[in-house]
Amino acid sequence: MKASKVSDLRQMSDEDVMEQLQSGVVEAFDIIVQRYKDRLHNFLYRYTHNHEDCEDLVQETFLRVYRSRMSYERIAKLSTWMYTIALNLAKSMYKKKQRMSLVSIHADESDPDDFEMQITDTVILQDDELHLKLSVQELERALQELNEDFREAVILRDIQQLTYEEIAEITDTAMGTVKSRINRGRQQLQEIIGSYVKSETI
Predict the structure, then answer these.
(1) Strands 118-119 and 122-123: what pairing?
(2) Which residues is 122 bridged to in the sheet?
(3) Fewer CB within 10 Å: C terminus or N terminus of the chain?
(4) Helices (H), the chain
(5) Which residues contact 101 (CB under 8 A, 6 or more apart)?
(6) Residue range 63-120, pLDDT digits in tens
(7) What's the whole-model pTM score?
(8) How many Cβ atoms from other residues are within 10 Å of residue 202's Cβ?
(9) Which is nearest to 178 in space by CA: 160, 163, 161, 159?
């Protein structure tokens, strides 16, 4: 493929690039990998908390994307389709390990259904505040006490910052259920972490 054609691919939307791949333009796959390798790595690392396992899952996700390229339909965003593949692979690999971590929990000011999670009068909005008030280890401990559905919803919303619509599609769950899981997961995290703080100050 000529360089000008590669340049054209880089200007296309994700969905257009995928259509090029479906039509036999193999270079389109390289564009998809470039755009999503870091995003998928960050996403999957929250589930594995293990760089080696994360790399394996990223590679497997791209392999599945390529093998299943003809099954992709433009009615779905490419990102949503890829996150669904990645999530299913992660859940399959870590069904029993349940090792998840969380970096930040915050409320979306533009969304009236979101709320800020407060822990001992401290609102965790950014990574700096998180590290000042609460260790990542404590968040990990708290997440282990949530059921898988709540952990999954909170990570997809607060880490990946996906919309409710995208989460509903990725998890094949009703919108109301998604919102409920996110809010209940945040509330439980607040209660669990609050108990840690109290026990440490006694």
Answers:
(1) antiparallel
(2) 119
(3) C
(4) 3-11, 14-22, 27-48, 51-67, 78-93, 127-133, 136-144, 148-154, 164-171, 175-201
(5) 45, 46, 49, 136, 139, 140, 143
(6) 999 999 999 998 888 999 999 999 889 888 866 454 444 444 555 555 555 555 544 4
(7) 0.63
(8) 5
(9) 163
